[in-house]
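Risk register update: the risk of archive-format incompatibility is retired. Evidence:
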Amino acid sequence: MTVSGAHSFFYGSWEILARGDNRFDRVIFEIGFEIIEPVGYDAGPTCPTCPPGQTGAPLMMCSLMLFAVLIKSVDEEQVFSGPQAGEKLTPFIVHGVLGKHADQKIDLTAHADRLPCVIVFVHERTRPAYGLAQTVMKLVADRGPRKVTGGAVFLSEDPTQAATQVARLPKYFPGSVVLGVSPDGKEGPGAYGLNRNVSVTVLVAKKGVVTANFALVQPDIGVDGAKIFKAIGEVLGEEKSPLIADFAPERYRGPAKKKMTRETPARPQDPELRRLLTPMIQKTATDDQVIAAAAKVEAYAAKNRKARTEIGQIAKRIIDGGTLKKYGTAKTQEYLRKWAVEYAAKSPEPSNRGAVKRDAKD
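Archived output:
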């Protein structure tokens, strides 16, 4: 069972014709428990696997309850990638790509025994992954090679192609940090046990021992970046954590830093909304993953009027700006069109919506 598939069920509702004395029909899962609504269907024949005289409803309900528990456990399962806190960094080689590091074989752990070390493994070529790597490397460059060592490692099934792509990034990454490609392919250094299903793995170490590990499936610069910066600040012995706003790309610094343009629609200001929308705009997302993510967004919007309005505004600006095709897949764009209409800022009050629906039926 995949997490995305679990969410797809968890936030949805399905019509189920249940054979049972109480004639249950619909099961709605919310936060791991079910709400049962009785309806007037006939009980139907008895279940051949149940005790004599007992229908299949209890069996079905037990199965559904168990399924809900499994969904919750899958959703809460922690993701692991790379050496964990307390484990030692082992030497590994990357092929340098840019500047003075180009065409060199470099061990990013060479000075980790005497300097704090920060290593970012980039598993996926996505904007959030690159944005987070860029932000962390800017902090490393700012603190300088006398205080911290490390670099960014790009993983790919085709290291040669990856090197070509990384070579196009000099204007986004500081020139003093090491940007390298792993010769070990998508899995990265064998001894590190990296998880190819995450987008980014960030390791923070001191005296050659990992102090913090961040395995991120859906990296968020504002949320995850702050945690990573805090961990780096701690190994550097800094009293205050470095601020994301001082290093993140301009679009992540808040509305006061950058005005809306046709090319750059507003980024959600609600951190939870940002987290929920991120998987939807991935170009590599499957339809099932988009549907699952959209279900989460709509569930959140149903409980949060402000978030609902913000979703509508963002979707409308994307469409009005002519940049819809830049966001996610065709299924993603389908939802954005839907939300631009349903979550419009000037949507009628609930009582009026009911009147509109009745008129439509007439």
